[in-house]
Amino acid sequence: MSVQQSDSAAVLARLRDVIKNDPILSGFLSAAITGTSHAARAPQAAPQAAPQAAPQRTKTGRPGAERSADGVLVCGKKEVMSVFANVDGNCTVKGYGARSAKCFGEFFLGLDDGPEDRAQSSAINAAISALTGPDGFRMGLEHTRAALAVPSDPPKKTEDVSTDMLAGVAAELFGIPDGELITAGKTGLHTLDHGVCPGDCAPLSGYIFRPEPDEMITRYGPIPGHLLLEQTKTLIARARAAASKPAGILTQVPFDTSPPAQDDLLCRALVGVMMGLLPTADGNFVAAYDELHGSADFITARDAIMALGDGVDFDGARAVPAGPVCAAMQESPQPEAVWRTAAKDHFIGDTNPVAVKAGDMIIVSIENATREDLSAGIQDVSAIFGGDRSATPQPLHGCPGFAVSMGLLYGAVTAMLQDAAARQG
Q1: Which of 131, 136, 111 is nearest to 269 (CA)?
Q2: How far is it, in rounded angstroms, from Cα 221 to Cα 224?
Q3: Domains in the chain and their CATH numbers?
Q4: Which is more confidently placed, 214 or 130?
Q5: Mean pLDDT, to the nearest integer, of 137-148?
Q6: pTM summary value
Q7: CA-wise closest residue to 125 among 419, 354, 402
């Protein structure tokens, strides 16, 4: 198993030395990182396709696959899920590994199927998969209520509630933020002396997962990764020294199953999992609730939740937000697109197949796939999570937190609806 050490400490030392006596540069860095966080949340422009003769069109009007200026753009639901399943080994995720190496080091998300991937990912993926929809609902409900309970003038925007809610969820799952080395909040680095969670995860996610991150994300997105890694390593080192378990139910699993010699790898995996989970939950919660709040369904949903009373639970409540939440996610999924690299020459698509050459970037348009289903009246958001791991064939890098994430969204939206009703009444 690869356990090469990350170089985040050296990178941070160089950055700290540069900004130590330059407050102007420090302020610029903070503004740049904050702007990167906002940019990572913003929709990315759709790649422009090269002309192609009579391609087969999806229900969104896009072909199942087509040549773009930067590689191959995959839009059809069938084709998207085929790329995720990767039955024939046509694609590789090693590009993710190359990018994460520049942020906080490589971990299992940048590995293709094989013994090393399974050795690194099995324990933590099993722990994530064990978290259920009701688990997520309870966390979303409790931590959103806690965020809303803090007085705010003016009232918090949905994205502010999301930040506070996800800080609570992350602390429960990972023991991060701990309030000292990593604080709760949005991204904003001033002296590089502590990380910020969940905010620091957004630039990382944008840098690694976006097919074509813009200049701001490319330049500044990796920096928070170095900081999160070093502070996470300190937290784990403290737990080892005290012979005690670290906080966070998902942190405890790899801590218990990995020897201390692999703590650098353990910490890379933890930062990587947070980077995958938190921005996805943030983007979809904010988009889904704001869409619902501005729609004709809002009053109906609010009143239906209130009719369930204070003891609302997952089974009783999920039917209320599920329809509008899933529809909003399908219309504006977060992320809108991810990418793979062609591992060998092959074709994508059944009708008018597109020739793919080894080394091509394959841009997977999640947005087109989910909108295709939405237009057909099919409620399916699994493409947002890289596919459904319960399906056959199983997508290698499908998110093991699909169930808990959807429960989390339903719980958070339920709490927002309850709060809206209380303020209305």
Answers
A1: 111
A2: 7
A3: 8-424 (1.10.630.10)
A4: 130
A5: 98
A6: 0.87
A7: 402
